[in-house]
Specification:
alpha+beta
C-alpha cells in the first residue's frame, strides 16, 4: 500500500471510512496504488484504471475507460457533458460499499481486462471555439498565445470551457486575467 494514499485517507475530512472500505476491495486486485491529481489512483501496467473521487454528496470510484465497460447492472454514472471516456460508481456509506463488494470487484476485473486487451476509447472530435475575449488577450500578449498553444489539448480545453461558461464578457475577462499566470507557467486549470 502506498504511504501517500494512506496519509490522504487518514487526513480526509469526508468519506474516510468509505475510502478505507473501498481501498480494501481494490487492493485485492492486481493494481498499483499511487496518489495522482491529489487522489488515490490505481493503475495497471502503467495505465490509469480507477481513481477515488470524494465529492460533497458521495464517494465515487471513477473508471477512466468506463464507456468501454458493459455495465450490466446499469450503475455507472456519466461524468458530465464534457467527458467522453470516464464513468463512475457512486457510494454514500460503508454499508453500501460492503453490499456492492462483489459487483465492484467484477467491474474492476473488467476494467483491468480492458487495459490488458489494449482497447482505447474513440473520442469524437469536438470543435473548440476560442472565446472572443481570449482571442483579444492573445492579440495583446503574444507570449500568452504561445504558452496557451504549448499546453496539452486537454488543458487548453479546460481553460476554454471555464472561460466560455461565463455569461458576461466582464467575467470572461476576469477569468482570463486570473488564469494568465498559470498559462504562462505551462500549468493546467487544476494544477497547483
Amino acid at each position: 500500500m502506498n504511504s501517500d494514499v494512506t496519509k490522504f485517507i487518514k487526513d480526509a475530512k469526508n468519506w474516510r471510512a468509505e475510502m478505507v472500505e473501498l481501498r480494501a476491495i481494490v487492493s485485492k486486485l492486481k493494481l498499483n496504488e499511487a496518489l495522482k491529481w491529489r487522489m488515490p489512483c490505481y493503475t495497471f501496467d502503467g495505465h490509469n484504471v480507477v481513481i477515488f473521487q470524494p465529492f460533497k454528496n458521495c464517494l465515487a470510484l471513477m473508471f477512466f475507460k468506463g464507456t468501454l465497460l458493459k455495465d450490466p447492472k446499469k450503475i455507472l454514472v456519466d461524468n458530465g457533458p464534457n467527458s467522453q471516456a470516464s464513468r463512475r460508481m457512486e457510494f454514500h456509506s460503508v454499508e453500501e460499499i460492503k453490499k456492492s463488494a462483489s459487483i465492484i470487484k467484477s467491474y474492476l476485473k473488467e476494467a483491468i481486462a480492458v487495459e490488458e486487451s489494449g482497447q482505447t476509447v474513440k473520442f469524437k472530435k469536438r470543435p473548440q471555439s476560442v472565446p472572443a475575449e481570449l482571442k483579444a488577450a492573445f492579440l495583446k500578449n503574444s507570449r500568452l498565445e504561445a504558452a496557451f498553444k504549448s499546453l496539452t489539448p486537454g488543458r487548453q480545453r479546460a481553460y476554454i470551457l471555464n472561460i466560455a461558461s461565463a455569461k458576461q464578457a466582464s467575467t470572461r475577462d476576469a477569468r482570463i486575467a486570473k488564469h494568465t499566470p498559470k498559462i504562462l507557467a505551462g500549468k493546467g486549470l487544476q494544477d497547483r
